[in-house]
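hey can u check if this looks right to u? its 292 residues, i copy pasted from the old doc so theres a chance i mangled smth
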Amino acid sequence: MNKKTLILIIVLAVLLVGALAYLGVRLSQANKANEEMVQLFELEKEEMESEYSTFATQYDEMQILITNDSLVAQLEREKLRTQQLLEELRATKASNAAEIARLKKELKTVRTVMRSYVMQIDSLNQANEKLAKENKRVRTQYAEVTKKVETLREEAKTLSDKVTLAAQLDATNIRIEPRNKRGKATNSVKSAIKFVIDFTIVKNITATTGERTLYVRITSPDGTVLTKDASRTFKYESAKLEYSIKKFIEYTGEEQGVTVYWDIEEFLNPGEYTVYIFADGVMIGEKGFTME
């Protein structure tokens, strides 16, 4: 083995050990992601930066391995292109979904091109059995790095699910007041003519702002939904549910009170009634009350 090849092998091993150490740190950070969920929005961008940086370095390393001037020039062009994409990624905010998606697509192309060059170089150097064995060891280490990256992606998916859960609305302080024709509170099924339902949508800075649709279901003691029209339904999980009241709100992320009304036009039986509140296909609150 000549000195140039030995230096290349040492440099490549050091870079791979450094990459393994870096990804180990990222895995440790991902394990703590439940405490700092905001890291989710930077995780994928950091992974992409790491891969772009690794590929740019690998192009330098491959140029040392070969003597074919034409191939060296091709590798130089691909290295410069990879470095340009890396700089674009670093200048892109993690919240810029469209640009991140474009650069992620470009990264897929870079991987494909890299694989093609790796195959060419392997073919050019297959006569050197010792170097081929060393390349196999390096590829094994690269597979381990790739496995760690996949682990990070799984951690990111889990964290994404938790962020989605955290972004859901929540209804609290639910109060149901049956009223008679004089507007007075009553628990009598004979005198009640209206249900007044008050609740609070809690503050949630992670939830999407804007117009939201709330659905309220009122069920009688036998489980029947109080509704004016059985065709009034909304999607919940894999089913369509009837609703009693539909309410549009302009959600700002801050706490806000909501009041809805149900005019009693049907015969009511004494017993336990339940109010369920839904938003974005999720039940966000429920409260029972008794009529006599």
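Residues 94 and 100 are 7 Å apart (CA to CA).
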